[in-house]
Amino acid sequence: MSWNNRETVVYKIDSLPLDADGKIVLMEPWNVCVSIGLYVNPVDVGAWCYRRRKRVCLYGERKRRHIVLVDPESFSKSRAPIVLAFLEYMLHQHGMGIRETTISQRINEVNKFVVWLGEHETDDFYDRDNFKEILLGYTRFLFDEVRASRINVNTASSRQRTIIEVGRYIFSDLDSDLYDELKRIRKSVHAVNVTEKPDDELAGRMLKIYLNVFNSLSLMVLRFEKFPYKIVIGNEYFWFFPTSVPIAGPSNIGLKQALSNRFRVYDYINGCIRDGAVVSKNSRDVALKNIENANNNRFHSRRIFAATLAAQSFVMLFSANTGMGLGQICELRWTGQYSIENETQGFKTIKYRANGKITSFLISKNFFRIFKQYLQLRDYLIEHSGIENYERLFFSLKHGDLVPLGMNLSNDFHRRLNNCFNFDVKITTRSWRVNKSDWLLRNSDLATTSMVLQNSIDTVLKHYSKGSEKQAQDELREFLNNYSDKVIVSEKSKLKGVSIGQCSEYGEPDVIKEQNSVFSLDCRTPEGCLFCKKFRVSPNLDDYRKLLSYQYVLNETKFLYDNDYVYENEYLRLVSRIEDIAAAIERSGNIPDEELDKTRKLVLQGYELDDYWSRKLSIIDEMGVLY
Predict the structure, then answer these.
(1) Which of 269, 297, 325 is the last residue before a domain boundary?
(2) Does this model's pTM top 0.85?
(3) What pLDDT digit, counting tens, does each position of 101-121 carry?
């Protein structure tokens, strides 16, 4: 086996060659790479036509680049249709205005499918029936991965759906479903990884750190301050020298071993060069010359270091202030020309034109000064790179070149923060988004929260409305005090079984007044039971499974709630009530924790449903409602 660095042709998504009907025309799709904004290197989709591939890094004079080497003997022309189909699919997604981060996710999903395909000899994509068999095998594989807890059910659902969509482009059959007999992997709202709101004290502390780092380092760069430079963060101070261990202070100098030998000449406690009685004259002269050179160079490497760290600090502040996700932040375009409009509730709208259309985002009024300071810092970094402008508002510096922000920004920034200042805690951009949404939900209405976060109301409620763990515990404790003694009954009680539990007096419903229920009390409907004083559950797995099964069916059919008011007042109230009662069963102590965890996990992913709800779901499925 020999590895070959083959010749490739690079296209931008919107410059792929098309025929008169708008179809992509490529003579050799196995040699095609696609340039996508968020990627530093073009994506080698043509390499999917080779069963054996490996990604390597090549180093040049100033920078490195990644390429894919292939084994020529592993070439499979029968894989060409999936390359062409994915390019068609990606072109369509791009034309629809789908975000680059989403397109990046789709590339990753198809790549994982191709990796799985490499373990199987059958890969003929010219034959429709053969492709169906391949997809059936891949679906079984995804189900196995979910059952083994190696991937989330929502991840599996997304991967299956992407391959189905790409398959439609292979056979130019976009309207009909080629896969009626295929078992779909359904998403579950309970498999969504709900990010925890950061503790208020920690959030306040980190915001002060971000702001101190940004102000101190950005002003140092913009005002061309001299080395050594003092950085004050809270009650601590640090000194900044132009060395390979640039920042240290009393709180962390003992953790930096290099300062005890190689850099002894630099005094990180007093911010000066040690005198000749402590260090050699030669070491002192070299250090003084090093500082002089840095103080005469506006673009010294340590100033660039400070500028990039300050820029990352601002991105975290921007995330906390706007509530934007990192994907949105990465894709923000910028031309430098913008207007400001005042909004209600303390926000300003920044409007500008990018890619031929008006773009905007909201920031708080008191954040605008910091935003303008960042724009100055941005201009400094662009000037350093030697170009006139850069199309994105935020970027990174890589080997002297400006590149789009990576999705690892939070990890990289907090790693640098820890190295420089020994701050070993972090809050991700996703957590800042939750923090912002929690504040908005508590201080404004749902529509305003949705507008600021630039998400649908459904997404806000699904991902960002749970608050902190402490708040959730307080709410649960309040519920238990009020209701658990009324709802939970002994397993020996002789009650009538219903679809979601038990009934103490069937046919004689009585509404819980304090619930202000919008549901009519009908003993034949589960929603009526949930808000009835006669409703009971036994603290056993049977009733626990009934409740969770009903919750799963509600989730699978929630799209039938046709407006936000109905969604909030019916669906969310039902789910909340189910969760309250299920929590009471969990706290009863009658069922081992491991059995509770196993049952909840399986049922809320659609497995081992209660028989009644399993039949109900099958009927709905056969009616075609779920698709």
Answers:
(1) 297
(2) no
(3) 788 888 889 889 988 888 766
